[in-house]
Task: inverse folding
């Protein structure tokens, strides 16, 4: 089954570029384009995409409001729609607001084409993705709001093997599976297995939750390299 994607960006050249990139990928189909948030909401209801690739700053209704409205409609209509925010504006406030609105991911527009396609597949599967550098920076900035290890004991951490703890530390520092594999001198398949075990044992939904959990439980500390 092909992943149906709706492109939302007020710049026609960017929409054309994203279309060319995505239509060269197997099992990804661009089913429509919208130039603003109002059109994005209407086209989502009409076309029923699996993933909406959403810009943030647009005339009229912006990407944050459009994301919120789309996901509220989808929940009420029983539709599975994911929103992946893609923007040139690397601002923490935008990231936080996008995730609060229910977006499944947040990437910058300079993301390599293969990573963009991979991100669409990830959010289509129901997981979440945030550019690792953004995730790490956000947590460093807001870590003082998180509970300390003493306030948030986590007995399930005892279920992790030492290698799984090591993978969690590296994941929380923003490393991709490929980077973790190189660091540990193992295959990406092995890393994926470890990540899956970590999520299952800790009862976490996705990598973003795993990163937050690592900060909450003291596996990593703000500013730690």
Result:
């Amino acid at each position: 089954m092909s992943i149906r994607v709706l492109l939302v960006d007020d710049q026609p050249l960017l929409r054309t570029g994203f279309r060319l990139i995505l239509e060269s990928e197997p099992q990804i189909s661009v089913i429509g384009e919208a130039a603003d948030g109002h059109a994005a909401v209407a086209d989502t209801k009409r076309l029923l995409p699996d993933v909406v690739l959403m810009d943030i700053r647009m005339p009229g209704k912006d990407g944050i409001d459009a994301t919120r409205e789309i996901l509220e409609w989808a929940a009420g209509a029983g539709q599975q729609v994911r929103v992946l925010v893609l923007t040139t504006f690397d601002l923490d406030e935008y990231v936080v607001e996008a995730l609060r609105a229910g977006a499944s991911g947040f990437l910058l527009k300079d993301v390599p084409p293969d990573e963009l396609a991979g991100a669409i597949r990830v959010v289509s599967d129901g997981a979440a993705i945030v550019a690792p550098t953004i995730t790490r920076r956000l947590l460093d900035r807001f870590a003082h709001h998180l509970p300390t290890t003493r306030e948030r004991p986590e007995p399930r951490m005892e279920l992790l093997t030492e290698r799984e703890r090591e993978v969690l530390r590296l994941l929380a520092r923003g490393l991709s599976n490929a980077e973790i594999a190189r660091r540990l001198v193992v295959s990406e398949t092995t890393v994926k297995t470890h990540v899956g075990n970590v999520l299952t044992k800790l009862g976490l939904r996705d990598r973003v939750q795993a990163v937050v959990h690592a900060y909450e439980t003291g596996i990593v500390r703000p500013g730690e390299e």
About this structure: The mean pLDDT is 84. The first helix runs from residue 12 to 23.
